[in-house]
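Annex B. Sample input.
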Amino acid sequence: MLEVVTMKEIDAIFAVTDALGVHREMLVIPLGPATPGKVRRLPSGKLEITVDAARPIEEWVKELPALIAAAQK
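Annex B, continued. Sample output.
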């Protein structure tokens, strides 16, 4: 189980968000993961991406585009 978000997880998130055209300055990535992982829009308009603590990052980021799309509606 993931206890702290490291550059490995952040880089995996950036690979997805860069491909989607989401500017990195529009992201907030807490260093504390949670179960389940989630994406939500903050009042500032930024996207908060909380990494899933229970699943491997390589598996979880496959769902990230759908989570981002849902948060942007």
